[in-house]
Design brief:
Elements lengths: L1 H13 L4 E5 L5 E4 L2 E3 L9 H11 L2 H10 L1 E7 L5 E9 L2 E9 L15 H5 L5 E6 L6 H15 L3 E6 L12 E6 H4 L3 H8 L6 E4 L5 H12 L3 E6 L4 H10 L6 H11 E11 L6 E9 L2 H8 L3 H10 L8 H10 L5 H7 L3 H8 L2 E3 L2 H4 L16 H10 L4 E4 L6 E4 L2 E4 L7 H9 L4 H10 L1 E9 L7 E11 L2 E9 L6 H4 L3 H6 L5 E6 L6 H15 L3 E6 L12 E6 L7 H8 L6 E4 L5 H12 L3 E6 L4 H10 L3 H14 E11 L6 E9 L2 H8 L6 H7 L8 H10 L5 H4 L6 H6 L1
Parallel strand pairs: 7-11, 7-12, 8-9, 8-10, 10-11, 21-25, 21-26, 22-23, 22-24, 24-25
Antiparallel strand pairs: 1-2, 1-6, 2-3, 4-5, 5-6, 12-13, 14-18, 15-16, 15-20, 16-17, 18-19, 19-20, 26-27
């Protein structure tokens, strides 16, 4: 009857089963493509035959241990070389076996197994720690075997493996491969590791890090010139780091984190997904690489920042599970049903399905699709964003107890939909943000981020939105601003010619001011694009968030986003000065530290652009000076007077023909009289200078609106809300 078990093993090979389960007096079952399958003609296997087969496989010592512990691991192979990993155990019904067919090690190829190419690069490393993680049955041992085979076939190394049990036999190729089985040759992974070090291996492969003893031995080896590769039973890369550090007693965790940060090369966490139209499985692999920032985050035990590094590290080769699974689906390797079953972060995956990505990666990376994927619900975020775009709206407003609203030509207009509840808004917003962003929203009660959306089947046809989420009256609210993918020209914005003259300067400060929604970001983008198109310069922008993406033309443009690329405007500006810029753009001067850094940058030979929320050009000067303590204000006046090139204050007015909005500009030029008034603290006289210096290119907001009215671009009614009082309106 032992032949019965052998015939069952052969059937497992023929059906490409990943696992086989035998229980006394029951029909065998196979795991094929992740599903349990019972053969229609299967016959029960007597318990006595399982006992007989076990005694045939196990050594007398292992059989004694089985009778004591109720479990034992072993390996067995046919004379022709087909190999199996066996686990014998006792169940309620009697003896049982879990069996896994194993391929020959020299057949394992990284590319053919659809493993990430980064593994081939990691195999070339001389020292450090590589971890392969995942749940039981996720293919970790196969990946280890592929790594061993890659090194064995390409490098002259001494590879030592410590396994329980040995799963793949690796005949020597270019490398010397020594394989040790823990249960047969040593007392445990840790003890085997200490013994292995005396054999002077180049590469050490540890079957599994099970305890602190093994972890410490692996860490010591990776820090002393060996390439160490091992596995861990954890579900993702970040959890793996936490698990390893938490193996140590609390008083040793700080040093353990530092050592792990120094040693780590990569963590690869994998899941097996049934391949489409096949009886095979395909791995989806999350990849965390040991970059300097990742190593620092590990040393600091800053796991939240570690998660950020993983999501932002696509250009370096890092991949999240959601992206890995989505790529498998996009390449038609797996079905949508199996993709959804495998993914953990369903929100991030659904966002990718819809052709959307949030955060900095929304413009750095793009994953499209060949079809229009909609939610099953009647109204979803993508539908509302498309409504905003189709109606040429500047903003989409979502407020509780109100239908979705579009701002069209400056006027809020409701969409013909029922009022939204708090739950509706939460569902809409949470469909486009990550779990980390949810936490940030709950903690800070507001959130800014960028979103890139593919609204057609054309992968290149994508639209960007700037989204602000907030709480009001205890409920969520959201405003999404449509960001034009095409940077408008100064002519299309009707920017005054004197403003274009300012960007010819190579040093000084140009400020663009106005209330929220007045078009400051668009004006800045247009001015930066003009420099980019005409000058050979290095331009650094610091924004929150990035709205317009600048491609390098005549200049080199580096764009940094707050919270994604830097922690603050002031910090980014400080380091920008060391990056040899010619032009710097600061998205907003929010605090004293940022204002001081802007003034310093303008003083030290840079052309600096910045925005600030003020209502007029003269008021901007007061706002900057008054931001500082009284004992510093005189010094700030001197600095500001020496660097000011101009202040542009702007408003957007509805056009008379209903075709959008027109900008009215107030322009204060930093002439010697203006600089003198600022230096002497006589800012109350700036308005007079502004009104009487048209010959110098200055223009008041009133004059600009008058020009728009006389040209028939705006109506008189449209200008009324921008005058200081009733008398001024009548005079106008």
């Amino acid at each position: 009857m032992a032949d019965l078990i052998e015939s069952i093993l052969l059937h497992a090979l023929e059906t490409h089963a990943s696992d086989l389960f035998l229980t006394a007096d029951k029909v065998p079952s196979y795991r094929i493509c992740g599903n349990i399958v019972f053969p229609p003609d299967g016959v029960p296997v007597p318990g006595a035959e399982i006992d007989r087969f076990r005694c045939r496989v196990l050594s007398p010592e292992a059989e004694t241990a089985y009778l004591h512990d109720g479990t034992a691991d072993a390996s067995w192979s046919f004379p022709s070389g087909e190999r199996f990993r066996l686990n014998f155990f006792t169940s309620a019904g009697g003896p049982a076996m879990a069996i896994r067919p194993i391929l020959s090690g020299n057949q394992l190829n990284i590319t053919e197994l659809n493993l990430p190419p980064v593994l081939e690069t990691l195999c070339k490393e001389q020292r450090g720690l590589i971890l392969i993680t995942g749940s039981t049955g996720s293919g970790k041992s196969t990946t280890l075997g592929a790594i061993i085979n890659q090194i064995n076939q390409t490098q002259g190394k001494h590879i030592l493996t410590i396994e329980d049990p040995i799963e793949f036999l690796h005949p020597n190729a270019k490398s010397l491969v020594s394989q040790r089985e823990v249960s047969s040759h040593s007392g445990g992974f840790g003890a085997a590791m200490r013994s292995a070090m005396r054999e002077n291996p180049d590469v050490i492969v540890i079957g599994e890090i099970r305890d602190l003893d093994t972890m410490q031995a692996a860490l010591n080896a990776s820090l002393t010139g060996h390439l160490v590769i091992s596995t861990l039973h954890t579900s993702d890369t970040i959890q793996s780091i936490e698990r390893l550090i938490n193996m140590y007693p609390v008083h040793l965790q700080e040093q353990a984190a530092i050592d792990l940060g120094m040693a780590l090369l990569a963590v690869l966490s994998q899941r097996l997904i049934p391949r489409k139209n096949s009886d095979r499985m395909i791995p989806a692999v999350e990849i965390l690489l040991g970059t300097p920032m990742v190593r620092k985050s590990i040393a600091d035990r800053n796991y939240n920042f570690l998660d950020d590094s993983l999501r932002r590290g696509t250009a370096l080769g890092m991949v999240t599970f959601a992206h890995a699974i989505f790529q498998c689906y996009r390449n038609d390797l797996i079905t949508l049903e199996n993709a959804r079953r495998a993914v953990t972060n369903t929100d991030e995956f659904d966002l990718l399905l819809k052709g959307m990505e949030s955060g900095t990666d929304s413009f750095r990376n793009y994953y499209g699709e060949s079809f229009d994927s909609e939610d099953n619900s009647l109204v979803n975020m993508r539908f509302l964003l498309r409504m905003a775009l189709d109606n040429h709206a500047s903003d989409l407003h979502l407020t509780v107890n109100t239908p979705p609203m579009l701002r069209i030509n400056g006027i809020l207009r409701p969409i013909d939909l029922p009022p939204l509840s708090g739950v509706d808004i939460q569902r809409l917003l949470y469909s486009v943000i990550s779990p980390r962003q949810r936490v940030e929203l709950e903690e800070k009660r507001e959130l800014d981020f960028a979103l890139s959306v593919q609204l057609t089947s054309d992968e290149q046809d994508k639209v960007r939105f700037r989204i602000n989420a907030f709480f009001q009256r205890g409920s969520l609210g959201t405003v999404a601003r449509v960001v034009n993918s095409v940077i408008p020209s100064p002519q299309s914005l009707s920017l005054p010619p004197p403003v274009l003259g300012l960007i010819e300067k190579h040093q000084g400060l140009i400020m663009v001011t106005g209330p929220t929604g007045s078009g400051k970001s668009t004006t800045l983008a247009s001015l930066i694009d003009q420099i980019n198109s005409r000058r050979n310069a290095k331009i650094i922008t610091i924004e929150d968030p990035i709205e317009y993406v600048h491609r390098n033309k005549c200049s080199v443009v580096e764009q940094r986003e707050l919270h994604s690329d830097t922690l603050s405007f002031a910090s980014a500006l400080k380091f920008a000065l060391r990056q040899d810029p010619d032009v710097i753009m600061v998205g907003e001067m929010r605090d004293v530290e940022t204002i001081a850094a802007v003034l310093t940058a303008a003083e030290t030979g840079h052309l600096v652009f910045a925005t600030i929320h003020t209502n007029s050009a003269p008021q901007t000067v007061d706002r900057i000076v008054d931001s500082f303590p009284s004992h510093q204000q005189n010094q700030i006046r001197q600095q500001l007077a020496s660097v000011i090139l101009g202040v542009i204050s702007q408003r957007l007015l509805p056009r008379a023909d209903g075709a959008g909005r027109a900008a009215a500009f107030e322009v204060l030029i930093g002439t010697p009289p203006v600089q003198s008034l600022i230096r002497e603290g006589k800012t109350h006289q700036l308005q007079s200078v502004l009104e009487t210096s048209g010959k110098d290119g200055m223009i008041t907001l009133d004059k600009s609106m008058e020009n728009l009215y006389n040209a028939g671009i705006v109506t008189l009614e449209a200008t009324k809300g921008y005058h200081a009082d009733y008398k001024q309106t009548q005079e106008f």
